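hiii, so i know i said id send this last week but things got crazy w the move. better late than never?? heres the sequnce for the chain we talked about at the cafe, plus the structure i predicted for it. fair warning i was half asleep when i ran it
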Amino acid sequence: MPASSVPSSAVIRLGLAQCRLTVGDVTGNAEIVRLVARRAAAAEVGVLAFPEMTLTGYPPEDLVLRSSFVEASEAALVKLAADLAADGNGHLAVVVGYLRAGSGRRPQNAVAVLQNGTVLGSGAKFHLPNYGVFDEARYYEPADKATILRYGDVDIALTICEDLWQSGGPVAAAAEFGVGLVLCINGSPYERGKGAFRLGLCRSVAATVDAPVAYVNQVGGQDELVFDGASLVVGADGSLLAHAEQFAEELLVVDMTAHTHANRGTTNLLEQTAHTEGVLPINWINAEPADPPTSPAPIRLADQLDDLAEVYEALVVGTRDYVEKNGFSAVVIGLSGGIDSALTTTIAVDALGADRVHTVAMPSAYSSQHSLDDAAELARRQGTHHRVISIESMVEAYQKALQLSGLAEENLQARVRGTLLMALSNSEGPLVLTTGNKSELATGFSTLYGDSAGGFAPIKDIPKTLVWELSRWRNAQPGGPPIPENSISKEPSAELAPGQRDADRLPSYDLLDALLDDYVENDQGRDQLIAAGHDEALVDRTVRLVDLAEYKRRQNPPGPKVTPKAFGRDRRLPITNRWREG
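okay and structure toks below
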């Protein structure tokens, strides 16, 4: 057909499959693709895209170093193509992430297109992130070509996550060859405020390429990481065309009007090899276009959560998926009557339902009656399985043998509680949720093998001041306040000694959290911290506490990451370390 007779634009019905995947469950993840494909076919979708590393789950970490794992991924891809055809959905052009062998010793983070029972072709990720939680330069071989799917008269640039975040590479190739659409498959973890940044990024790429950008992201928890979905599509002019819900599985269907390759001033691109110096060559994949849809797809612009709702939902989803993906039927929490255990319990109940949450009050000789009452009232409001087990006689038995005093006596109480909770976990099966917050974790204000003992830590990346904010926010939601007001308003205390208060050992949490934000999140040194307005004595004291507590943090359980720099995957410092600020 002469170029002049080819339409200048075409409508593609695109499906973005925002899925909850599980690392290592290659068979289960492939089954999710088949189930979603059935819904997509019923919705007359033509191109159906799934997230990064769909078949293996993301991030698979050192599993990718095993040849057996790579081979399983590649075999599952071939089988999936055949299964889609057997299901009657072979006409769909299915874009799916998987793991494939590279040309050298390392595998590749790859994307493939499936149609009519076969793998039409595949490409790989070019930009490999190696910062924060990402170690992809350690694992993968980068692509040496950009991948473009020719879908009828429309050229679709296929990119993988970081390829969209970095200049050059696949985005530059997409602009050079005048594609009609950029399709990016993602495993992009949640961070507070990241949604607005992603939208701005997609708009920037759309302007660079002068074409719409479709962004599909996975959803759910994977160890410390939480994926928020929030898949979206922007037009070439930056307008928001579609947006999926956050933290929920969804098939986002959108009708895309894309320029055809004839209208972009290029001809015979399949054979074209010449390109601008420095721009990646093209790996072309051909797919058959679907028949036009019989009626327009409804416009989907899901409401997005506000800041505190977003953070809270990330904690709920991260907790739920850790418990369920690891096969636990219930959780158990030491409920002190204080704000940290109150928020942790509330998150657990919202994540799992009250019937799967067990709470235990463990009073010692120094526990106040109001704390016991607050714990009982929270359990009553939320319907948890609650019990009271006094630890006084257990502590006395240790004291009779050891005659401890001071900090050792205080820590003994916490360790007895930790042992008790782990015993309940061993005998009855629930996972122990720890209740420490980020401020405590930063300063070492916790007892190793005591309150830090457990399997998952829902609020470990939540500073104390944010614990209060989230608790007040949750109490303001419909259905009545789940947390007793006294747990929120009373002065914090570990209640391990007579009249003890957090303020006796730590500065005001308002001052402390601001300082910790600059030191931990922003990596400011002593002089910078003082120049930023922090009190010099407070800086010296706090920095020392943070530095000396590194060995404790290494032994804490995982918990959902919500800040830009969480302890563990993000912030990695040596334990044996003589560097001291100032």
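btw Residues 134 and 282 are 27 Å apart (CA to CA). thought thatd interest u
miss u guys!!
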